[in-house]
Amino acid sequence: MRAATRFAMVLSMSAVLASQCAHALAAQAYEGFWASTKKDCRDQDSANRMSIEGGNRLYWYETRCRASEVTADGHLSWKMKLACEGEGEKYRSSPRVSIAADGKLVVDDSPVGQGKRQTYVRCEIAKRR
Q: For 62, which DSSP code?
């Protein structure tokens, strides 16, 4: 009976750990490919495209950032602390990333761009066959 009890305890703890790991590995709503317009989505060389991968890596045309911290800031909104590198310079940035009601990605205090507020549409990337 003891072995069965231990086995049940190990099994239940494994299930708890697996569910926590699965939650940690789940993709964030902001992950994916984005662009200023649908036309820019189709142009792989467009400077107006960006991607967010792994929940903490952000890539623009000539800028790459890694988030050391991502915290929720309301419904479908996050604050990030980024270490960035672009055009030969290294710098830090603290943007707020959110998904608007229309599904667009809004980046306030963006590490790139003139107005420091960037708005993107989600790009539907065709899957390889």
A: S
Q: Give me the half-sphere count of Cα atoms (radius 13 Å) on the Cβ side of residue 46.
A: 17
The token pair that represents 70 in the structure block: 């991502």
C-alpha–C-alpha distance, residues 88 and 41, integer Å: 26
Beta bridge partners of 65: 58, 84
Domain map (residue ranges) of the chain? 28-122
pLDDT by residue, tens only, the chain of 129 residues: 565 545 444 444 444 333 333 334 458 999 999 999 999 999 988 999 999 999 999 999 999 999 999 999 999 999 999 999 998 999 999 999 999 999 999 999 999 976 689 999 999 875 554
